[in-house]
Specification:
Glucose Permease (Domain IIA); alpha/beta; 28 helices; 835 residues; 34 strands; eight-stranded mixed sheet; binds phosphoenolpyruvate; Glucose Oxidase, domain 1; eight-stranded antiparallel sheet; binds magnesium ion; Histidine-containing Protein, Chain: A
């Protein structure tokens, strides 16, 4: 077959994929090709062919062209976030097109303003079948200019015609770090020198040697025995060369007898000096439980490598995806579980994930094998982005892998059944596994890895299951059947405690249960300290359901509505009307109680699909919170209009996240005042700020002159004060808001606010931490916005405290040497008070 010439689909500067500011494209994870930085506004067909897919957002299209070459053209980077607005499709899937025909027209200016880059990758996605022999980069091109020349890979034809030779051999991996990115790239390079198609196979999984992501996804470690497989005319030579390459160690450290390097363990137990028989962990969901250890070890679902034909496998995958989607959509419930299911459905509908699986099927794979390959490759990409929050989302992908494979193979996914009183132990847990637990049987979770902000942590909290994460390797020594005391609040698991400790724990659990029942019974009463000082007991909300739970638990209002959680599953920004309806519904459930609506806090660890933010090296220090809103005035205005539309005016107060300077408050208030004028609202509307940056805490006295109230976000204030990423399990053990440095910032905030007569609240995690409450009150905090289910306990605790004693306690805590010392101090304080 002769060479295939592809012409430029765009007018613009043609360049190498290396110049695309996106790791997935630049890394050729979806295929090799070229990129064009466009100056024109239409995308043309680079060859005759047929439209295979057109993304619903209009920004990406795939074609099957002459000779069977498959092409993906993706206009700009992260343009899926634009929700289709700048794109107009001129063709439809299934349509035949001729070279030069206009496929998509687009508004270049709109993309330039809203997306991180307009550079458009043009990729050959079936690179196994075609080799690029010439790139026409480094020059201005017009539609019609040849930019890529391809040749079919001869081996393909040979395999097709002759059935091809299949050869395989086993090899032990000597490299100390296994097959990581560099060896994977070397393997790909060597494989390209042969016409045969080759794969590495580990266990039941295989990956082509030409895809680094797939190879990494096999998780090949030092000492693993893997199979090198090849098919085609020179298969034997290819296998011999690859085996020699791997056996030779590729210049990597080989250390044949050394054990593989230990992963960087969170090892909180190592950071804390705990007596024998106790394991330290990081609090993921509060509570206290006594139970019996039971490991959850789920075997990997086995799937064959080879499929039964493209058509059969494509239909099997389609059916399995449909069944999982339908099950997720039909599951009852709202709140965190529903939001997580919505996120899973979005993953199932992800075109790129599906295209990757389809490529595996077209390559002859079984549907399950292809799906596993696609999800693992994407999970690897997420884990490699250096963002712990995104890495935690990789668990969601692995969860979906399992659900779809279970559907395909009929493997067991029924609710996990455990005896009553089980404390579940796991290396890691998937969100769907937590959702499937019966809270009447499982009384707590102890997890070796995991992150305190993962979906698993959120779900455990919603289900009322105490949970510790990041316990580290020592958890592996706990055998099934061992008696455990899980003190999540104290960050400790007691393993096989002596009878005396157990008896004490039973007494504690009994007292806690009685106290919880009494607190709930009294939750409707006002919240005052023992000496009569009014403390507002509010609740943090992320959904309408949360508001219902808050009211049922006696919350006197909401000190934080996390509005970014309301529109998680959206890929277009909600307009003012939609927002007004939702805020109004929540305000209605609160029946007139105050509702503090926080302006969208996206960016950093909270990406929103509908707001494009260019990749950042340090997202926590980048475009997040109010910085995003001020950079996108239309988003800010729509949200403020939504809030101001709620009646009665004044029930909703406005709160600005991540404030660092006066100018941000002044800018928001100016928009609020302009909109009040336009909407005919005479009443003043309160605008307060979150104190989450050390800058805001230190200058609280200045900021308070411009803000109606201040509410301290102790989660972020702690991470910024201690320079410890709140989502990184490696530093999780050190993140404690009772660190004296954080307490000093809180004290400083309260003093600054008092100079202007402003009230100060806390809406971060410390408001739901029983040991923090006396300190916060002692430091001058008068509003505490806690997790809805903690409100009864919060109110009961406040009623036992007196301001003077809390103040004396706080003064001592400010001078303490560590968070541990502060916690011990408060424990003694509460014990003395109870005596
Ligand atoms: C905080 O930072 O403490 C806070 C309440 O905001 P979020 O946890 O939503 O970042
Ligand atoms: Mg915050």
């Amino acid at each position: 077959m002769t060479a295939i010439r592809l012409t430029a689909p765009l007018k613009g500067w043609a360049c190498s994929l290396d110049e695309v500011p996106d790791a997935v494209f630049a890394g050729r994870m979806l295929g090799d090709g070229i990129a064009i930085d466009p100056v024109g506004t239409s995308l043309h067909a680079p060859c005759d062919g047929e439209v295979l897919t057109l993304h619903s957002g209009g920004h990406a299209i795939t074609l099957r062209g002459v000779g069977g070459v498959e092409l993906l053209m993706h206009i700009g980077i992260d343009t899926v976030q634009l929700g289709g607005a700048p794109f107009t499709a001129r063709v439809a899937p299934g349509e035949r097109v001729t070279q030069g025909q206009v496929l998509i027209e687009f508004d270049l200016d709109a993309i330039v303003c809203a997306a991180p880059s307009v550079v458009t990758p043009i990729l050959v996605t079936n690179g196994d079948a075609f080799r690029i022999v010439a790139h026409g980069g480094g020059r201005m091109v017009e539609p019609g200019d040849v930019v890529l020349t391809l040749e079919p890979v001869a081996a393909r034809e040979a395999v097709a015609e002759t059935g091809g030779e299949r050869v395989s051999a086993e090899v032990r991996v000597p490299m100390a770090h296994g097959i990581h990115a560099r060896p994977a790239a070397r393997i790909g390079d060597v494989a390209k020198g042969f016409s045969a198609t080759s794969w590495l196979v580990k266990g039941g999984a295989q990956a082509t040697t030409r895809g680094a992501v797939g190879l990494l996804g096999l998780g090949i470690r030092h000492g693993d025995v893997i199979e090198v497989r090849a098919s085609g005319a020179d298969a034997a030579q290819a296998v011999a060369a690859l085996v020699a390459l791997i056996e030779g160690g590729m210049g990597e450290a080989t250390a044949p007898d050394a054990p593989p390097p230990a992963p960087i363990a969170p090892a909180p137990a190592g950071l804390r000096d705990l007596p024998a028989g106790q394991l330290g962990g990081t609090l993921a969901a509060a509570g206290y439980a006594i139970g019996t250890a039971r490991w959850l070890r789920v075997a990997e679902i086995e799937v064959p490598v080879d499929g039964q034909g493209i058509e059969v496998e494509a239909q099997r995958l389609e059916r399995a995806l449909g069944a999982v989607r339908a099950r997720l959509a039909a599951a009852p419930g709202t709140g965190a579980g529903a939001a997580i299911r919505a996120a899973h459905i979005a993953f199932l509908d992800d075109d790129d994930l599906r295209a990757e699986a389809d490529r595996g099927i077209v390559g002859g794979q079984d549907a399950g094998h292809a799906w596993r390959g696609a999800t693992r490759a994407q999970a690897m990409v997420l884990k490699g982005l250096g963002d712990s929050r995104l890495a935690e989302r990789a668990d969601d992908l692995l969860d979906l892998e399992r659900q779809v494979l279970a559907e395909l193979t009929g493997a067991e996914t029924a609710a996990l059944a455990f005896a009553p009183g089980t404390i579940l132990l796991a290396d890691d847990l998937l969100p769907s596994q937590v959702m499937a637990l019966d809270p009447a049987a499982v009384v707590g979770l102890a997890i070796e890895r995991g992150g305190p902000t993962s979906h698993v942590a959120i779900l455990a909290g919603t289900m009322g299951l105490p949970a510790l994460v990041a316990i580290g390797a020592p958890l592996q020594d706990v055998a099934d059947g061992t008696t455990l005391i899980l003190d999540a609040d104290g960050g400790v698991v007691h393993v096989d405690p002596p009878e005396a400790v157990l008896a004490e724990a039973r007494a504690i659990a009994g007292r806690r249960a009685d106290a919880a029942a009494a607190a709930l019974a009294a939750a409707g009463e006002a919240c005052r300290t023992a000496d009569g000082v009014r403390i507002e007991a509010f609740a943090n909300l992320g959904s309408v359901e949360d508001a219902r739970i808050a009211v049922a638990n006696g919350a006197e209002g909401s000190g934080l509505l996390r509005t970014e959680f309301l529109f998680l599953e959206r890929d277009t920004a909600p307009d003012a009307t939609e927002q007004a309806a939702l805020y109004g519904e929540i305000a209605g459930v609160l029946e007139g109680r105050p509702l503090i609506v926080r302006l969208l806090d996206v960016g950093g660890d909270k990406p929103a699909p509908y707001l494009p933010i260019a990749p950042e090296e340090n997202p926590a220090l980048g475009l997040r919170g109010i910085r995003v809103a001020l950079a996108m005035p239309k988003i800010l205005e729509a949200q403020l209009r939504g809030i101001l539309s709620v009646r009665p005016v004044g029930q909703c107060r406005i709160m600005i996240p991540m404030v660092a300077s006066v100018a941000e408050i002044v800018a928001v208030r100016a928009v609020v005042d302009r909109l009040r004028g336009e909407m005919g609202i005479a009443e003043r509307v309160e605008v307060g700020i979150m104190v989450e940056t050390p800058a805001a805490a230190v200058t609280a006295g200045t900021l308070a002159a411009h803000a109606d109230f201040l509410s301290i976000g102790t989660n972020d204030l702690t991470q910024y004060a201690l320079a410890m990423d709140r989502g990184n399990p490696a530093v999780a053990a050190g993140i404690d808001g009772l660190h004296p440095a954080v307490l000093q910032l809180i004290a400083h905030t309260a003093q600054g606010a008092a100079r202007h007569g402003r009230w100060v609240g806390v809406c971060g995690g410390l408001a739901s931490d029983g040991l923090a409450v006396p300190l916060l009150i002692g430091l001058g905090i008068t509003e505490l916005s806690a997790a809805p289910r903690f409100v009864p306990e919060l109110k009961a605790l406040v009623r036992t405290l007196s301001i003077d004693r809390c103040h004396a306690l706080a003064t001592r805590a400010l001078a303490a040497a560590s968070a541990g010392e502060v916690r011990a101090m408060v424990r003694d304080f509460l014990k003395e008070q109870a005596a």
